[in-house]
Specification:
homodimer, 401 residues, alpha/beta, Rossmann fold, Dihydrodipicolinate Reductase, domain 2, Alpha-Beta Plaits, 3 domains, 11-stranded mixed beta sheet, 6-stranded parallel beta sheet, elongated
Amino acid sequence: MVNVAVMGYGTVGSGVVKVILDNNDIVSKNAGDKVNLKYVLDIRDFPGDPAEKVITHDFNDILNDPEVDIVVETMGGTGAAYKFTKAALEAGKSVCTSNKELVAAYGLELLQTAKEHNANYLFEASCGGGIPIIRPLMTSITGDEILEITGIVNGTTNYILTQMGECGMDFDEALKGAQANGFAELHPEADIEGYDPCRKIAILSEIAYGKAVDYNDIYTEGITKITADDIKYAKSLGAAIKLLASSVKTDKGYEIMVAPYLVGPESPLYSVNGVFNAVFVKGDMLGDSMFYGSGAGSLPTASAVVGDVVDLAKHLGTNIMKIWDEEKLPLVPHDEAVNCFFIRVNEADKEKAAAAFAGAKEVKAVVDGEAAFITGPMKECEFAAKVNEVPVISCIRSRLA
Amino acid sequence: MVNVAVMGYGTVGSGVVKVILDNNDIVSKNAGDKVNLKYVLDIRDFPGDPAEKVITHDFNDILNDPEVDIVVETMGGTGAAYKFTKAALEAGKSVCTSNKELVAAYGLELLQTAKEHNANYLFEASCGGGIPIIRPLMTSITGDEILEITGIVNGTTNYILTQMGECGMDFDEALKGAQANGFAELHPEADIEGYDPCRKIAILSEIAYGKAVDYNDIYTEGITKITADDIKYAKSLGAAIKLLASSVKTDKGYEIMVAPYLVGPESPLYSVNGVFNAVFVKGDMLGDSMFYGSGAGSLPTASAVVGDVVDLAKHLGTNIMKIWDEEKLPLVPHDEAVNCFFIRVNEADKEKAAAAFAGAKEVKAVVDGEAAFITGPMKECEFAAKVNEVPVISCIRSRLA
């Protein structure tokens, strides 16, 4: 018997309990041993709930119980979650989590702690919800040099952008709708400002490239400035606007960035809509691949967490995780990163813009009194300098062919 | 040092050698030990080739060399490939392969042989080329009951159907083009008649559901009857025609089938074009997911094979594969399987068709003198009986919403 404790009985934690209880035969068969839910840690009580009898309010019940082999951390944050995870690993218990803040901030340290104690720290659910992506990067795409990872890894912003595209709404209206439908939080900054995908691309880059990435070093732009008119232009170009978290190997280092982009139908990311997520991976041998699925939600995320529980159960007492180096991944400074840009200007500034962005391709204006262009590849600092010369109505990075 | 022998120096085998040699640092780091190419078995010589010095013409050189830990079988077929694989496993060497014929025909036996000798038999590259799908099913989606697997798992037919869609060609012309471009073989029956995807969906079903599937029991229909007019109708319906290899859990057992279907843009499979492959997986907790990438080609397939080599190197002396039961998976007899059907009839037969397929929805005819319908869900035997009453010009199964 393998005993599991779940810490935090919120959206994901309750999903984990449901998967372990409802699919116990499947989970136990795959784990090679009976998987038993022994504790659920929460400050609340849950009378009448399936977890009622195993609820504890004291982490020490879990820590000091030698029968607990696996701890699931679905508390979120970097306070108690860090303290409890660290203590559990030091006690030789394996831990898995859906907590990307914690992994992005303390992942390397916790992986090392796990290794020192012959335990494991797994976090498949921290990126892309239910989508298997971390384990495939660790155990399948192992003959390739990875050249690029680009993800739509935030369901809230993808839902908002999809709604804007389908209904012609402005951002504020779409955000309110997302909040009303439970797809955005009351305090949605972590999503709409891109902080959440920033942490996820940091984690994915560390795994893919084997060196440390500080998410504070990643240029991050959210979707709050995208307007209904921008979407109109995107459609007229046969494109969609997507918040991409991307990490690309270049001659000068790695360009990691979170920002909205125009994406065309030749990209498999173009048709990733609503709350779905997808991670595009390019290997030097494999070529293009993509992993698609539910990026959030209680049960899909729990599915990934329980996948980790099964893996932990199969590897009790053996360390299996690839650990990245403490050395920092060499990043291209944001100013030096190269992008193409879609820009809208007032018709009066058309000549000026054409001169400033020499070689830019003019595209059809779909708002009266405007002109629009897509520039060739240019450095971010060059673009910023030009925008000082020519006032632009809006600009969005472009991956259109 | 881990010593590897590659058997068969054709398209995939030469790719495997290239990945092992060109990415040796990455491969060795991921394997945790230096990966050394010790032999390449082929009947030919390759003067001036990177493999020249390790070529052998005698399988016994590999079999009798105790230093060879891992054997890569990229010979194809079920003759010598079977004999050599079996002998290597019996000698305690681990084997990996891209050979779906062999896995579909002898997979269970070879997995058991591997287990008896503390070795492993891996075949990630047998389904979906470079796409990681078998390992994710084995090691990631382990908390779910899998409810459906539907794949576009044959690049040749997907390329032909994509060409027909883009250029309005008829099947014969598109096939000739595919042959000229190297995307179809001179004897293309295994692809265009669906035999290849049939073997792949058998393997994927065995892994997902844990019971044996004889590919001879799977109803298999190719794409040879699809015409330019069918494609015209598909487009008018906003749909694409895709050769789907599908395996769906129903109340009455598993419906496994290979056949062309109308697929709409609400399906993530709709935008899988050209030689790309994708496998859609639905779990009871995970919901919808999809794995997308290069389904064929020397290097993408080799990437998957070398992923297996790394996994084998990490697990020498330990059996890691989940083995399915000898007991057969209960299949729904083809006659009892339920589908919707798109049908074209002569305008003169319109009333008759409307009466026979009561409840079918009429759709716009795009060929003069015709009428067209999409039926509701009906049993294959019922549909076959109706087609005896009403002569149809063509019929294609439909997954349109």
